[in-house]
Write a structure and sequence with these properties.
The complex is a heterodimer of chains A (about 375) and B (about 80). By secondary structure, chain A is an alpha/beta fold. Chain A contains 13 helices and nine strands. In chain A, a hairpin with a 2-residue loop joins strand 7 and strand 8. A two-stranded antiparallel ribbon of chain B has the order 2-3. The chains are: A alpha/beta (about 375), B alpha+beta (about 80).
Chain lengths: ~375, ~80
């Protein structure tokens, strides 16, 4: 016993300091997690000191939404904005009053879900998907907003997602057959894990292009085709090589390359995969997504394939590589699998300003 | 690319009265003279979701989910052509 006390006297203080420093470092690196924790404490304190609920509400919403955004950034190449709540008319504070900028009413502690839903939905529509929604139809935009908000709430608050689904999403689906159809497609795409990393990514690139002739109806049709392409790809049977793996539109072109064959991997021969990807680079595909099993050996092989392509193509960049849980179809059954996705961005193929003639001659 | 923050202006329900008073619309509001921009239902402190300053006036939106969705579609559509 005295030995343990002696150990504690010698090492207790430095270990304590070490743990504190680690915690501080973790929270500096993940400020949204700090806000989440602080909101929990603040909600407890607000039972005694009511006004602490201002901080609790703000920290809870910011912590939850920004946590989701932070994870999202790890899976895509887009820099998404963060949400920040600003109180107005609190005591003698100045009133924030800007033309066209709404003030949202936040309720007390009995309506925490409602507060989160209202803030998350508005943030998704006005900021998170702003760039990607630039050329979309109203139905496409609304369905993306609803589906993305569902993903945020699903990850960050189970009770809020139930309320959101029953009061907001389902009535919109019941009212609008197009939203129902698009939602069904997003569900299939998300099963593969491609909703944000591929679909939203592609729409974000599309959003940064400017069409001097405003071909809006054509773009809307093309987005429909992209969604259908991704849905078909997501629903393909493992081993089915008849499903199209390239999308060639007028305004977007991307390719998905599967690197999963065990036989090829065991031979250690990256040539055939590399040639297929190089063919896409030469064909001016802006984005090439390499997808395969998330097994350690396969990740290593996929990285070698990507590395080989990067060394042979100057304008090609490895934008992101990440591992996630996805679902694939094996003999008609959906199976959960660890998946690895590498995003290669072909910056030499990107063009930002389009005139009518450019579209026909350069992108097609 | 620089990361940006999307600021959302909020008012706590406890400060609603103060806000309405300072905007000079409290009496009209209490008299039930304001309607939801989308469903035209009378706005109260209990059902108010959002206040939107627009074209020199004030619009109120109620918290019915259908109006929240309609409002979001409306603001998103308006901001579509604004710079990021």
């Amino acid at each position: 016993m005295s030995f343990i006390i002696a150990l504690y006297q010698i090492f207790g203080f430095p270990i304590g300091v070490g743990i504190t420093l680690l915690v501080v470092w973790y929270f500096i690196k993940n400020p949204e997690k700090f806000e989440k924790w602080m909101s929990m404490i603040a909600w407890a304190v607000s039972h005694i000191w009511k006004n602490v609920d201002y901080y609790a509400t703000k920290a809870e919403i910011q912590g939850r939404v920004n946590s989701f955004v932070s994870n999202l950034e790890a899976n895509t190449t887009t820099n998404f904005p963060r949400i920040s709540l600003r109180w107005t008319a609190r005591g003698n504070d100045e009133i924030v009053w800007e033309e066209g900028k709404a003030i949202i009413v936040m309720r007390d502690r009995n309506h925490r879900n409602k507060n989160l839903i209202h803030a998350a939905y508005l943030f998704t529509a006005e900021a998170l998907l702003k760039k990607s929604a630039k050329h979309l139809s109203r139905t496409q935009k609304t369905s993306l907003d609803l589906f993305s908000t569902k993903l945020i709430l699903e990850k960050e608050s189970k009770s809020a997602v139930e309320q959101f689904m029953s009061e907001y999403y389902v009535p919109e689906i019941d009212k609008n057959e197009d939203i129902r159809g698009l939602t069904q497609q997003y569900v299939h795409i998300e099963r593969l894990g491609a909703f944000f990393p591929i679909l939203i990514q592609e729409l974000t690139y599309l959003g940064s292009k400017v069409f001097l002739t405003k071909p809006s109806a054509e773009i809307i049709e093309e987005v429909k085709s992209l969604v259908s392409f991704l849905e078909k790809f997501a629903q393909r049977e493992v081993g089915d090589t008849t499903i199209q793996d390239t999308f060639v539109g007028k305004y977007m072109r991307c390719a998905i390359r599967i690197v999963a064959s065990k036989a090829v991997r065991e031979r250690g021969d990256i040539t055939s995969h590399k040639e297929r990807i190089n063919y896409c680079v030469k064909g001016k595909f802006e984005n090439i997504y390499i997808i395969g099993s998330g097994e350690k050996k396969n990740i290593k092989f996929m990285d070698e394939v990507a590395g080989g392509c990067l060394s042979e193509n100057e304008g090609l960049e490895k934008a992101r590589g990440h591992q996630f849980k996805g679902q694939i179809k094996i003999r008609g059954n959906l199976t959960n699998v660890s998946t690895y996705l590498i995003h290669l961005h072909n910056s030499s193929a990107v063009k930002y300003l389009y005139e009518a003639n450019d579209i026909d001659t350069e992108v097609r | 690319m620089d990361r940006e923050n999307k600021e959302i202006n909020t008012v706590h329900e406890r400060d609603l009265e103060n806000l309405l008073k300072r905007l000079g619309v409290k009496e009209k509001f209490d008299a039930g003279e304001f309607m939801c921009k989308f469903c035209k239902e009378a706005i109260t402190k209990e059902n108010l979701y959002s206040i939107l300053p627009e074209s020199g006036g004030i619009n109120f939106i109620c918290d019915k989910p259908v109006c929240v969705v309609a409002f979001t579609e409306y603001t998103a559509e308006k901001s579509k052509n604004q710079p990021d």
